Amino acid sequence: MEPNEAIDALAALAQGTRLAAFRALIAAEPAGLGAGELARKLGVPANTLSNHLNVLTRAGLATGERSSRAVLYRASAARVGELAGFLTRECCGGRPELCGGPPAKPFTEPTDA
After folding, report:
1. Neighbour-count burial for 61-100, b at 16+ CB within 10 Å, e otherwise
2. DSSP at 61
3. What distance lies between CA 109 and its chain's CA centroid?
4. DSSP readout, 69-109?
5. How far is CA 41 from CA 1, 7, 69, in A?
6. What are phi and psi of 33, to 5 degrees?
7. Which sequence spans correspond to the domains of the chain?
8. What's residue 93's pLDDT?
9. What are the two backbone dihedrals, phi and then psi, of residue 68, each rounded to the nearest 5 degrees?
10. Which residues pair with 34 in a beta bridge?
11. 77, HSE (Cβ side, Cα atoms, 13 Å)
């Protein structure tokens, strides 16, 4: 991954609706989600979501596949792996195995309490 590609991917995820859409797409793998279903799930108008999905697609973080009148979106987990690799490649002088930090804890949504 080139620096400009990393910047595009990080910029795409640096917006609340796009981050939520991407997380929903990752959770829906491998089946993916229809654009309408994703819009309802996020409570976002379809035309607004379409713009956000275009940004994610241009950054290589999602793909859309037309099936008759609907578009099915999927997250690109491989692209996220490339991004993580780009960000950590120089960790510990280029030897990330030496960093030895604890494994990341799974993210859980906050609950309304």
Report:
1. bbbeeeeeeebbbbbbeebbebbeebeeeeeeeeeeeeee
2. S
3. 16
4. TEEEEEE-HHHHHHHHHHHHTTHHHH-GGGT-PPPPPPP-P
5. 31, 28, 19
6. -135, 145
7. 3-87
8. 73
9. 55, -110
10. 72
11. 9
CB 73 within 8 A of CB 29: no
Question: What's the burial of 56, exposed, middle or buried (CB within 10 Å: 0-12/13-18/19+)?
Answer: buried
CA distance 37 to 1: 31
pLDDT tens readout for residues 29-66:
989 999 999 999 999 999 999 999 999 999 999 999 98
Q: Which CATH class is domain 3-87?
A: mainly alpha
End-to-end CA, the chain:
41
Can you say whether the dihedral through the CA atoms of 20, 58, 88, 81 is positive or negative? positive
pTM score of the predicted model: 0.79
User: b vs e for 8-36, b when ≥16 Cβ sit within 10 Å of the residue's Cβ?
Assistant: bbeebbeeebbebbbebbeebeeebbebe
